[in-house]
Amino acid sequence: MFELLDAAKAFIEPVIKPDSVLCDFTMGNGHDTEYLCRRAPQGKVYAFDIQESAVENTAKRLKEAGLENAELICASHADCKKYIHEQISAGMFNLGYLPGSGNKELHTMRESTMPAVSSAIELLKKGGILVISVYPGHEEGRLEGEMLCEKLAQLDKKYYCVTMLKLINSPDAPFIIAVEKYDK
Ligand SMILES: C[S@@+](CC[C@H](N)C(=O)[O-])C[C@H]1O[C@@H](n2cnc3c(N)ncnc32)[C@H](O)[C@@H]1O
């Protein structure tokens, strides 16, 4: 059975070292932030969300887990380059809305998702990987997916490998786009 999160992790795990700099571009309740913090205990994890409650929930989660290697930032991921002044080895985007928040209005949007993904690609070090989980089951998610596929298909194949992992017999199911920056 295809598990989206397991597949996303399988893409980035090979490039993560204990001292890597990583980023969770959609912090939410902090599951992915916690995962990244555990993978890079001597490194650093930047995490972004526009919702104060996401930052609070994640701070609580990390405190309970005894993890102190994250910087939690309450700002749009579109502004990530204002906060990150070093290269990252891996980044995760988990698009859509915060599960369980009751507020489905506060979901990711094309106008900030695209600049955020472009900035994230600029921040990637050579050999680094960005993984984006897309949810086409709702209208904005479907449009985000189309936009990302169209734009990321234009990345120069000399420098990037862009992969899509998608269930072809379930068109509305979530899918993954991974962007690898070649190590050359
Ligand atoms: C699917 S949830 C992320 C789940 C999260 N990774 C976890 O482990 O719980 C998507 C998150 O993206 C956040 N978000 C929406 N627009 C954003 C933006 N412009 N910048 C940063 N985060 C944003 C939402 O507030 C929501 O918490």
List the helices and strands and how they pair.
Layout: H1 4-12, E1 21-24, H2 31-39, E2 44-49, H3 52-65, E3 70-74, H4 80-83, E4 88-94, H5 110-123, E5 124-134, H6 139-152, E6 160-165, E7 175-181
Parallel strand pairs: 1-2, 1-4, 2-3, 4-5
Antiparallel strand pairs: 5-7, 6-7
3D structure, described in words:
The relative contact order is 0.16. The model has no long low-confidence stretch (mean pLDDT 95). A seven-stranded mixed β-sheet has the order 3-2-1-4-5-7-6, with helices on both faces. It has a single domain (42-181), classed as Vaccinia Virus protein VP39 (Rossmann fold, 3-Layer(aba) Sandwich), CATH 3.40.50.150. By secondary structure, the protein is α/β, with parallel strands linked by helices. It contains six helices and seven strands, in the order αβαβαβαβαβαββ. The structure holds S-adenosylmethionine (SAM).
At a glance:
By secondary structure, the protein is α/β, with parallel strands linked by helices. It has 6 helices and 7 strands, in the order H-E-H-E-H-E-H-E-H-E-H-E-E.
Arithmetic mean of pLDDT: 95
**Estimated share of beta-strand residues:** 25-35%
Number of distinct helices = 6
* Strands, total number: 7
The overall number of domains is: 1
Shape: globular
- Which oligomeric form is depicted? single chain
Poorly predicted segments: none
Query: Which structural category do the helix and sheet elements fall into?
Result: alpha/beta
Radius of gyration: 15 Å
Distance between the termini: 35 Å
Strand order of the largest sheet: 3-2-1-4-5-7-6
Task: List SSEs in N-to-C order.
Answer: HEHEHEHEHEHEE
CATH homology superfamily name: Vaccinia Virus protein VP39
Provide the helix percentage: 25-40%
CATH top level label:
Alpha Beta
Task: State the CATH topology.
Answer: Rossmann fold
